[in-house]
Amino acid sequence: MAAKRPAAAGQLAPIIRPVNDADTSPRARIVTLAELTPDPKNARRRTERSHGMLSRSISEFGAARSIVVDENGMVLCGNGTVEAAAIHGIDRVLVIPTDGNTLVAVQRTDLSSTAKTGLALADNRSSDTSEFSGQMLAELLEADLMLDMSPWFTDEEFSALLKADDVEPVPPEEPTAKSGLEIKIAFDDQEAFDRFGSLLVQLAASLPELNELSERLALVIEEHLNRRS
After folding, report:
1. 216 within some domain
2. I need a surface site. Which of 2, 19, 90, 108 has the fewest CB within 10 A?
3. Could you tell me if residue 121 is inside a domain?
């Protein structure tokens, strides 16, 4: 058997082991494109130009970039790539489960020098010509109050996206300072209220320090009964 030639400096050694090797990814599998689900909340909006670039890239260079799916097969990153792949009849998807601690590289060994440069340009440029949906960004923010947009959009950028889609920005609610214990008491009729009021009077008389509290509570109860009547 001929000795395996080592890879040159800066060059990856050829992959000679099967993808399901135990020390790589034992759960790697092939699924069909139809088994994936587009993200219904995808905020990235493909323009006609960006869609055309993606389609041409796959037509000239084939599938070259990885996508990200969740545990249910919903596409988190790469919805446009999936759409373009379907148009060009690419139906097989290699799924490699990972936890984010390992980079997943797509290794292409069939590209000429000119094709490598063309693929790199196509990959970078096609993302530049798509745009974000201000409407969807607003819906995402409204649905998840813990979502932080600030690492990806400045206030000016976010406002411009909302304005482009005629979306009114929702001002954040001012927190209301509350102290003490809030108690809600319901009364069935006026007689029950009167009995409770008499109890408050007796309590205030025996404990002068509760006089202000009992008066405030009585006013709240009276206002509530007036709204019910």
Report:
1. yes
2. 2
3. yes
What percent of the chain clears pLDDT 70, i.e. is strictly above it? Answer: 67
For the segment 14-46, what is each residue's pLDDT rounded down to a tens digit?
Answer: 544 444 444 455 588 999 999 999 999 999 888
The vertex-195 CA angle with 189 and 196, nearest 5°, equals 90
DSSP 48-68: HHHHHHHHHHHHHH-S-S--E
Q: Which amino acid is at 113?
A: S
- Residues with Cβ within 8 Å of 190's Cβ and at least 6 positions away in sequence, in order, are 225
Q: Is 157 helix (H, G, I), strand (E, B) or coil?
A: helix
Residue 115: enclosing H or E segment and its boundaries? helix 113-128
Tell me the per-residue pLDDT of 42-62, one tens digit each, with 9 for 90 and over.
Answer: 998 888 888 899 999 999 999
Cα–Cα separations (whole angstroms), residue 183 to 91, 217, 221: 62, 10, 11
Question: Does residue 76 share a domain with residue 152?
Answer: no
What pTM was computed for the model?
A: 0.59
Taking Cα atoms as reference points, which of 106, 129, 107 lies closest to residue 56?
Answer: 129
